[in-house]
Amino acid sequence: xxxxxxxxxxxxxxxxxxxxxxxxxxxxxxxxxxxxxxxxxxxxxxxxxxxxxxxxxxxxxxxx
Length: 64
Fold this sequence. Notes:
Low-confidence stretches: none
Structural class: mainly alpha
Mean pLDDT: 88
Strand content: under 5%
Number of domains: 1
Number of strands: 0
Helix content: 55-70%
Distance between the termini: 49 Å
Shape: elongated
Radius of gyration: 17 Å
């Protein structure tokens, strides 16, 4: 998973899900599979939002 997501992103998502303490204590292997699935789902949502934001057309230039 580290090849697909940066360590910072994984840490941020773990904090959001409330499993960061488990990760620090036991490593990623201690995180239940349900929470790992939720982490992946949130990462995909973030990626989709970033992609959508980058595809928005530029605003027209002001005044001429």
